[in-house]
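User: L,D-transpeptidase. Structure?
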Amino acid sequence: MIMDGANADAGKMGEIAQLERRSGLLNRRSFLVGSAVGLGALGLGGCVTSDGMSLAEAEKVYGPVPEEKFPIPAVDVTKVDPKYFRRTVRYETKEAPGTIIVDPSNYYVYRVEDEGSATRYGANVGRDGFLWSGDAYIGRKAEWATWTPPKEMIKRQPEAAKYAGGMPGGLDNPLGARTLYLYQNGAYTLYTIYASSDPETIGSGITSGCVGLLSQDMMHLYSRTPVKTKVVVLPA
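Assistant: Predicted structure:
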């Protein structure tokens, strides 16, 4: 289980990832991926992926979202392994429809649907030392949320202190366009499911225990997930 005694406000928005300094600047990728990213571009290997989605379909699903408060650019789908594209799959579970199930071993997030099916999304998950498992629920949700690094993170990485008062929402904000906050027993766990604009991180363990989906996938999940939705994180 993932209970944390830290004050919820102090830990607001979750501890998303290890910071790194690159060219003297802190940017979105610094917060999210640290030194773990280096996967390179993954070609789609032709017009049709192994999951049956054509390149044209993938580009449509992960296309730009210009009507957002901060217009979201298209995903470079060549940087995502096709097996992590959103799709409906057979999924047998005793959990009720609407439940979110995180499978960190395989880098997937499932939303349980009716009749033995689920919507499956590719994800990034916690790196070694930050993995956890257990039951939680969505305690709150936000669009273009302010990100505030927890005190523990600032202590480890003083570079984050400049955002101790909060980093406003936007494309450079680590939480991205949509955020679901995980709670247990009425307390914020410091973990979130958030929107990532870094396609090369999908299918890797790079965060401090949070779970990231591509922005277009996160918006799809967010719109179908009310507060109090159950979340099950499977053992890694």
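The longest helix spans residues 215-222. Residues 26 and 114 are 43 Å apart (CA to CA).
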